[in-house]
Amino acid sequence: MELLSNALAHRSVPDRYGFPPDKGPVLLAHDHSPDVAFPVAAEIIRAGKEFGFFQVVNHGVEEGVVRGFREAAAGFFAMLAEDKLPYCSYDMSKRFRLATSTFYDSGETRYWHDYIKFRGYPASNQNARHWPSKLVNFTPSLVEYSAAVHELAQTILCLIAEGLGLDGTFFTGNLSRGDTHMSINYYPPCPDPTLTMGLLAHCDRHLLTVLSQADVAGLQARHGERWLLVHPIPGAFVVNFGHQMEIVTNRVLASMEHRAVTNSAAARMSVATHVHPTDGCRIRPASEMVDEAMNPARYREFAFREFMEAYDAADASREEVLQSFMINHD
């Protein structure tokens, strides 16, 4: 597996990473982004309806906890190629795997990033035995980080429930009790950011994502016909809603497409924590979100496991995967 992180520097963009002009990045130097930094119920719902994204500060996750795990994750990508090789795999059933680009919607064109995907919370022995043992600080820093972000995510979910007029414990059962999956994307400096993309446009399949992007910009969120750059706020987490949130709230809260662009000046690393329903969780619009006369249920009931399979079959296409679960009211 040819990893981008194995090279000390890249002097040009290989042809296999080049996108045609109509599918390439739109690099925005100055634009407006959904910088909502107030972790209160009303502001969360307002941001969710408008953008599907918001940023939180004063969140209670200590700076040292975030820095400690980000340093451990950066240390993983900096390991020698032969030390990373045992973790390389495109087998999605593996509990810790390293890969490059993405097989969604890529065809022959590759995306400019390496990534690791793994299960981070709870830190069970079954999960932890797959984590890299050569980095002595990886496991303890991950345990601390994942527990802190899990607590933050549960607080956010309680605030979302409150803002929607639901019981405060609405999301605390099977809707958020699956193993927390984590994705760490590493984007090396790119010799020509106009030629390639870091990550394809997609919506997350999960309930909620809590992202640490540190101080290097690259995340863009779709807002209507525009792509908005989500400017980094010192110490903030970026939060966005996944498909399950949109379905459970009967489209009151939006799951917006997002993507990543590259830059030539600095490496960028994002750490994403995805809150999962349990595989067998039954997903449907909450009864409180449904009015048969004015706002009927937009989606049928299904098991989360079924959605995961449909998402993969649709190559992460927002329209195609949601179409499988929509109720036609025509």
From TrEMBL:
Its cofactor is Fe cation. PROSITE patterns: FE2OG_OXY. It comes from the Eukaryota. Pfam families: 2OG-FeII_Oxy (PF03171), DIOX_N (PF14226). The keyword Oxidoreductase applies. Residues 178-277 form the Fe2OG dioxygenase domain. One of its GO terms (molecular function) is metal ion binding. Keywords: Iron, Metal-binding, Oxidoreductase. PANTHER family: OXOGLUTARATE/IRON-DEPENDENT DIOXYGENASE. Belongs to the iron/ascorbate-dependent oxidoreductase family. This is Fe2OG dioxygenase domain-containing protein. It comes from Triticum turgidum subsp. durum.
